[in-house]
Design a protein that fits this description.
600 residues, four-stranded antiparallel beta sheet
Amino acid sequence: MNTVKPMYKWNKIPWRKLEKIVYKLQKRIYQATLRGDVKALRKLQKLLMKSWAAKCLAVRRVTQDNKGKKTAGVDGVKSLTPTQRLDLVNNLKLGTKVSPTRRVWIEKPGREEKRPLGIPTMKDRALQALTKLALEPEWEAYFEENSYGFRPGRSCHDAIVAIFNCIRFKPKYVLDADIASCFDKIDHEALLTKLNTSPTIRRQIRAWLKAGVIDSKQMFSTLEGTPQGGVLSPLLANIALHGMEKRIKESFPRRGTIKNGERIFYNAAHLVRYADDFVILHEDITVVQKCKEIIFEWLKDMGLELKPSKTKLVHTLNSHDGEPPGFDFLGFNIRQHKCGKYTTGKNSHGVKLGFRTIITSSKDKVQLHLLEIAQVIDKHKALSQVELIHKLNPIIIGWCNYYRAVSSCKIFYKLDFLVYQKLRRWANRRHPNKNKHWVSNKYWQTIGGDNWVFATRLEGTNPLVLRKHGQTKMVDHTKVKGESSPYDGNLVYWSTRMGQHPEMPKRMATLLKKQKGKCAHCGLHFKQEDVMEVDHKIPKSRGGKDNYDNWQLLHRHCHDTKTATDSSYGTKSGCNSAKPKPSSELTWFWEEDMLVMRYV
């Protein structure tokens, strides 16, 4: 397995076999960690790091699957040929010299400040991906139950459901907190001590942390922090923040007392964390205030501190200290409303509560969404209706899929009205000499009983329709089971969860169910970090239809392999330069303080 095999061409590598080899090793690493067998854990990690199969998968991840696969590091290399990929596999080993990262600044939606990213070279990215393959199964066995950010199989919706379950039967005080410059301030020595890994991996990670960054052709040293943009950085940040929930539960566990001859139980303080954002919940305000002091001291050990402007104490039902009830978390507004005796919910004992917990999209996110739609319409005033619909549909579908797991009906219908007003102005501007009835008949059609559908008028074919927010059906999201992990071997459970995720487009969810969670090309189960694409079995250029009989769901790399080997996509010389773009793709985008999945 460790022997270099130059006789393989990149597209002839038995990927199915390699993925099985690597997953079995990762599963054994996870199991060894659970039973506390450190000796077996280190041996398995060493075996994985030297595995030719793992090296191939790491290179494929950074050169074919990742969204930023064509982003260059300081060496200017942004794409590799199949031959270069094989050369990189053969030269991939720990202990090699590390290059500094390239600083890139990206805008934060709705803010003037920018987020710094550190882009490693292609070789360092591949080596980091290889290191992550070995470290992630170990730490998945350690990570706490209510840690959801940057972990396979966990999402923003799991964190929101965890908060809902915590407050659904009793109003509570909430410490809504954010860590100031978390990625940029982590203490290197504290992180390496907490990592507690083998000396070889430790030295390699230290080299990456100390590699420095090049910004505007100037070299800057990195004395603290992990650069955002690296493959390994999210895992290192999670490791640095691991232990917060345990520290809070140790200080304020669930306890019982006897009052008036009756035993009364007081709930434990709950901490729910997504990356560097977290909330602490408890019905006693003094407990929450004490938790804030404990976390403040705990973060000092990692060189971190709370951000005062984003840290506040609120109550879920009543106003507190001038703050309105409720709080915003991961783009959602979580709040409880008082209600009458005939409309109130009940707890598990049948006692009426007097309030309801309602979660909606936050006002800031609604405004940003409207602003994004308005900018697209204003920027493309000269586009045809068809092109404008193609621009707007992915934005609307992606945003609605993110918020369809909460109470969003009223907001969706309000957004449809505001988008209609913007489109009406766009249409009237294009035809200043026409009356409003003529403009309405040209751009708005009657479909299925709806008289105001922004759609094309095409004779003999189905019209191209702008997706309305109100068309989105609400779904309930089921939180991930406790401390379950994708490395526990229950592949059916995890592939089923993917199809039930609120952000999964309907077409992909249907194909996932039809294919029983497996890729139609390689036959392997889809994993949480896999990029999936919808492929036409018979290309449209050869008469293939747009329906489920002609669609199949593939990994992105499997899609590349299929289209490259299918002569119908290539030229006479056999190259695949004429292959079409995938018809649909499920992609994660980083928006402000949360990861958003968008259908493009």
